[in-house]
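Ops channel
N.P.: pipeline sanity check, posting one input/output pair.
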């Protein structure tokens, strides 16, 4: 009985509950990566994997960042033999228990009108806006395209199967 009493006191002091220990966050984000740029490059893209561990479906509805004049959720797809990029209107649904992969060659956060060079290794804040989870700001790391494409494309391919 004494052990249980002290365990409960410890949980209260730590801000947890016995049932909540180890409980998953509703939205879990992998580390975010941004394609590094050189002087004069007006745009870039950011990539992340979003997992919905919550009890309800959610939707990625927008993104924003001080490093660009315009930030949008885009997709890339092959149409009539030509790779086309387009804005996703209305956001992207993320069902309960599902992952949404933003990766090169597919869905991504498009950063247009950059106001700074995104040097490899630099960190930049990007905020993702969810319909239910609200705003989540990530510190994204700028990486060279060769550092991004290998791991991200493999992850994207695995998720598509």
């Amino acid at each position: 009985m004494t052990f249980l009493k002290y365990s409960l006191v410890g949980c209260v002091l730590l801000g947890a509950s016995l049932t909540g220990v180890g409980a998953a966050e509703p939205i879990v984000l992998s580390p975010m990566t941004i394609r590094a740029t050189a002087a004069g490059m007006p745009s870039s893209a950011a990539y992340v994997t979003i997992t919905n561990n919550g009890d309800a479906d959610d939707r990625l509805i927008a993104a924003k960042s001080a490093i660009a004049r315009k930030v949008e959720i885009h997709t890339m797809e092959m149409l009539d033999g030509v790779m086309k990029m387009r804005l996703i209107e209305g956001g992207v649904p993320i069902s309960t228990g599902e992952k949404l992969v933003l990766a090169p060659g597919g869905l991504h956060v498009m950063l247009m009108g950059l106001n700074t060079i995104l040097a490899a290794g630099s960190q930049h804040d990007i905020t993702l806006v969810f319909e239910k989870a609200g705003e989540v700001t990530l510190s994204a790391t700028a990486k060279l395209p060769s550092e991004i494409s290998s791991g991200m494309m493999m992850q994207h391919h695995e998720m598509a199967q």
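N.P.: looks fine end to end. The longest strand covers residues 68-79.
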